[in-house]
Amino acid sequence: MFNTRLPAEDRGITILRIAVAILLGIHGIYRAWTGGATGFGIYLTESGFPLGTVIAWSITVFEIVGMAALLLRRFIIPVALGFIFILTAGILMIHGREGWFVVGGGRNGMEYSVLLLSALIALIVSHRSAVHAAKHTIRS
After folding, report:
1. 2 within some domain
2. Is 3 a member of any domain?
3. Do 16 and 70 form a contact (C-beta atoms < 8 A)?
4. Of 31, 54, 90, 121, which alpha carbon lies 20 to 30 A from 129's?
5. What does the pLDDT look like over 74-119, one tens digit per residue?
6. How many separate domains does the chain show?
7. Alpha carbon distance, N-terminus to C-terminus of the chain
């Protein structure tokens, strides 16, 4: 999972990938463990989404499976895009109207989500660059 022979930049992105995976995956694990997907589903249904509970459980399972994929360095771009979609929806539906700050100057704001979005974009850019470099190395 962590190769000390990697250049420092690659080690840094590896640390970021592992941290993001754990931070995002813990939401799904907690929601599944505590039965919170049901309440989340009710919220989605009341917000006008059909099959709110199905959506809530789909998000929950995606968070858990997505965490495993990121930890194993598999499907990085599609998983990151899925998390970006979920986080953006969270900002639009909940966190954006609460303001910027999560704590301190406010409560439940979007700053943490924006940080995670930035980290996911960094993972995508890094992975695309690595894949691009590998393709050119193979052709040489």
Report:
1. no
2. no
3. no
4. 90
5. 999 999 999 999 999 999 999 999 999 999 888 999 999 999 999 9
6. 1
7. 28
The residue type found at 24 is L
Tokens of residue 49, six digits = 């989404």
Does residue 1 lie within any of the structural domains? no
Work out the pLDDT band at 130, boundaries 50, 70, 90: confident
Where does residue 79 fall: left (phi above 0), alpha (psi -120 to 50 degrees), or beta otherwise? alpha
Residues of the domain holding 48: 8-139
pLDDT in tens, 30-84: 999 999 999 999 999 999 999 999 999 999 999 999 999 999 999 999 999 999 9
Contact 122, 13 (CB under 8 A): yes
Asked if residue 135 belongs to a domain, the reply is: yes
d(CA 25, CA 30): 9
The two tokens of residue 51 are 């099959």
